[in-house]
Design a protein that fits this description.
Elements (H helix, E strand, L loop, with lengths): L1 H42 L19 H7 L82 E3 L2 E8 L4 E5 L2 E4 L5 E3 L4 E9 L3 E7 L4 E8 L10 E2 L4 E4 L13 E8 L2 E3 L1 H4 L8
Amino acid sequence: MKNKTNVEDSIFRKKGFFIALYSCLGAVAVLAFVVTFVTNNQSNYDPQAYEQEDLLQVAADQVDGYLANVDPEAWFRPRQTPAPTPPPQETQPQRPTGPPEDNQTMPEISPPPSPAPTPEAEAPAEPDPVRVETFEPFTGDDSLAWPVNGEVIMPFSLTALIFDPTLDQFRTNDNLLISAEEGDQVHAGADGRVVSVGRNVVRGNYVVIDHGDGLLVTYGQLQDDAIVSVGQIVRTNQVIGNVGLPSIFGYENGTHVHMHVTWDEELVDPYELLMARDSYE
């Protein structure tokens, strides 16, 4: 029983296989026929047949009459393209050339309007040149004016020890102390520019002036109210301040002017640069 069933299943399987195969072959044949038909139609298509100028749609009973009125040679003549029409030109009014007839006036032709004059732009006024105040720099041939007319109460000394009554000891001294009365005017030793105004415990209120060529002079022990300001140009013997009370480090020396000088950052004895006493006046 089992063998019979297997034989029948194999027979049906073979039949199903052949049915599927014949169906595929039929579909391929139909597709080949359709492709051949479309290709033949496209090869017979003539695009020039639809470009005939006198093609008309007529009824079947009017074909003979239509062919009798159509010139067959016209189909083979080259098509003529119409020449382009030139654009219309503007006509300009013409002035009569001959003499005017009696009672005939010449037409007036107005000149073209002239462009409106444009106002000339005013040139900006040139700014006045800024006057920069300068001074003649100090040289080795020059001398400094005395800041006050007083006696030297403590000389400059970097090697020998000098007694300092305020500190109650001997020490070196890098400045020059010139005695003066409180309120006396202090004068600039030469032309220069104020570079610093300040206060400390050693010099008290002070003004530093750059006299040029690397020469810096500090005038100390001044009153609180500064007469000059940083950046100001001063001239020789110009008042730069007044003598004030001495600072805590110079109190025992009495009222005086503290004078400190450097030239190219080297300490210099102010007394060597001060002019003779009789030229101070």
